[in-house]
Structures are given as structure tokens and as C-alpha cells.
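Reading a protein record of the kind used here takes only a little practice. The record below shows the convention in full.

——
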Amino acid sequence: MTTADHRTPVIVGVGHLRSNRDRNPEAARSPLDLFVDAIGRAGVDCGVPEIVARADTIGTTDVASWGYDNLPAIVGGEIGAQPTRFISGPMGGNQPGQILDDVAAAIAAGESSVAVLGGAEAVASLRAVLGTGQVPDWTPGELTRVDVSEIASDVMMRYHLGLPTRCYPLYENAFRAHRGLNFAAAQEESAQLFADFTTVAARQAAAWDPHIRTAAEIGTVTSANRMICQPYPVRMNAQIGVDQAAAVIVTSVAVAREAGIDESKWIYVRSAAGAAEPVDMLSRSSFHSSVALESSLTTALDRAGVRAADFGVLDIYSCFPVVVKFAAKVLDHPLDARLTSTGGLSAFGGPGNNYSTHGLVAVTERLRVERGLGLVYANGGMLTKHHAVVLDSQRPTEPFSGGAAPTVAQGHPPIVEPDCGTGVVETYTVEFDRDGTPTRGWVIGRTEAGERFPALITDRATLAELVRTDIEPIGRRGVISSIDAASGGDGAADATGTLTTLTLGE
């Protein structure tokens, strides 16, 4: 065996869990405690629990529910390791893929031999404790606020497009119209997809909502499944109010063999690729596709020398149906339950930036039994950051290949904020109150000159036109004007200046 073979990165241990599903304030555990628990389970899983103390690299995903200063170093102390390499990613659900890519590259280069990666969220417990008027006594660390400006541009923030619930529907509606589907057909497609996913979540012990649901239960708007931003009711949104943790142990082949880890546990990290769109959604080429998503997937496959049809085990990021649809189109894969190994972020749970670590755990567990090739695709931001990882139950004949995918040049129309003229709807969404009333909406539009503009919609007549399902809003013309920025909501009373709006006629 050559030196390169000895350095082949291999996943040897995985573990994940859910905690406090009853949301009992007395049972609240910190994200750190949950993550250390998951690491312990991964150690037991590999059959050599003491391997975690040999970790020279620790990678952690960003924790939204509690603030830590240098979480990788804290984790190292908790598990009795003395790591010299610390990896902690910024906000983004792509991070599990990115961190595994970095870890695999370090092992292949001989710069690391044992790595632990993963993370945890405790949003359910945090909310439960805060609901009693108290703050969790979780030390170390402190209560913190998520800074969404990391994933949204200044112009997006001014137009209140800093939340995924408001941004992903813009893609779904554009993709529907691009394919010529009517609203009902697209909703049926999404509902059936996520209903299929629930059958997978029901088999996962770590799933937050392990209940099989029908397409009607997913797609029908009710008081328990209210519309958030059209076209997505609650059960088509990622479920972030969870307590979940996941961990993966990666070593070199040489260390795995020397430690006596059974080869039946080994899953090889074959390739990876990351790509990113501009943070500013307005600066992207279109809303009916993602150039970076396609680049990350196709590059990872090319580096591994495999075809999409070769994969028997997959976990595709699924914060909203449109992400799965985009990936399925690139992979030429039917929209069905085979696209997930966990059950997805709505049913299994969406623990912040760490979801795809659960995907890695689930895919690894399946590959040990089913054998063959596995694919994990992770997404972060507003369809901004993408990472794909190819896993294999068989030893690869070529060394690990990862890193950024080649940059794909993409243009976009000039971006303007007009206060008059005529505009055409390029895509849109409408947000609903808890009582089912449309409260405001967003349009990405084009001027007569082809320039792209954002528009915040508060006019009730226009909101009523946008939520109609008998007429396609995309392509409709309206009158451009401006509104006071302070009318936008989201604590915008102190906002100054004006924002572009669009008024549609009947």
C-alpha cells in the first residue's frame, strides 16, 4: 500500500440524536452537551470509543441557538483531545459538506489523521426556557442573536428579504412558471414529495417529527398548517425549532487499521465540491435555476468519475421543496423518497447549519448495509452556498479530490430601484398572517428596459392579485411607484427613505 493509500480519508464512526421533543424546560440541554453526546455515540459506533481523544482536527458548524467562543477548542477539551486544527464555519447549511471537504483534504495531505466534525442545535429547549421568563444556565457561552446580514445583501435587508421563508418561494414560483405548471400542479408536486419524505423520517430514531403524512396533510392549508409565504405552508418549511446533534469521525486508512476499527464500518470520502452564488439575490442570473448548485453537483461527480445514475443512496438538502427540485433536475432523478436518507428538514428536522451532518450520518449508515455510492448535497443561505460530497463503500482507486468547483461566469440584468414607470413580474411571493390574511409581498420585477428591481408590496389589492391561483402573476405588468420605507414592518419604524413598489390592476 502506498503512502497515498494510507492517507485515504474514511468515515469510521457516526452518531446523531434528538433531545427534549416534549420541550420540557427542566430537560433542556445545551448544544455543547448534545454535540458531545453525539461524538460519544460516534465513538461507540466505530467500536473504538477512545479514538475521539486522538482527534487532531475538530470542525464545528455554526450554532444559532447559543453563542460560543471557539467551539472547536471547547469540544476538544470536553472529549479529552488536544487538537491542533480548528475548523468553524460561518452561517450556512453547506458547512457540513465544506468541513468534511476540508478534513478529507487535510487527511489526504498527511496534515491530519483523526478528525471529529459536526454540531448541534437546541432551539426547542431554548424557546421552552425563555418561555418561563428565564435564560438557560448553559455554560460556557451566552445567549446570542442570529445575524442574517451574513446571508443577505444590504438591498435585501432594506426590502426585508433577510429570511429564508421569504426568499425560497421566489425560486419556487419562478421555477413553476418556467416549466409552464399551474399553481395546483406545482403544489401537488411539492406536497407529494414531502409526503414521501415523511415515510423515511418515520424510520429515523433521531427524527423530530417521525409521523407519516399524506400529500393532503402536507399541502392543504389549515390552522395547523397555515400558509407562511406563498406557496409554502408550514409543512413545506424547514422545522428549525428542534434539539438535535450529529457527529462524524474521519480518519486516514492507516489510523483506522492501526486502531482496529472493523472495515465494515469504513465509508470512503471520494470527492467533494463547493460553489456559491452572489449573496445578493438580485445579482443572480435567474430565479428558475441555480448555476452554483449545478456546478457543485456536477463537479463532485466528475471528480469521482461517476454518473448520477450510479448513486443508490442520497441525501439532498430540503429546507424547501424547490431545492430538491433543482437538484433532482441536475441529477435527472425522479422526485421521490430516494432523494433523502433522513426524511428532510421539514419532517426529520432542520437543526440550523448542522442538518447535513445528519445527512452524512444517515447515508453512511445505509452504505454500510446497502453498499455502493452515496451523495450528500448541502445548501446554505438563500440558495447561496452549495457543497456536494461523494461517499463510497469501496476503496477508491484515485486519491480524494475536493475544493471549490470551477467558477462559472453568469451575468445578470442591471439592478435599479425605480420610482415610476411600468414593471413586469419576474417572480414573487406573499406573506400571510397567522389568521390567514395576506400582509405583504415581494416582487422581483423587470422594467421596460429589462433592468431588474426589487419591490415591497403593501397594497391590499395587489396582494389579492398576487395570491390568485387562476391567473399566473409572473409576466403581469404593473405600475411602479414608491412607498415610505417605514411602512415595511419588521421593526422598520426607524427606517428612512423610500422603497420601490409595484401595483397590479385587476
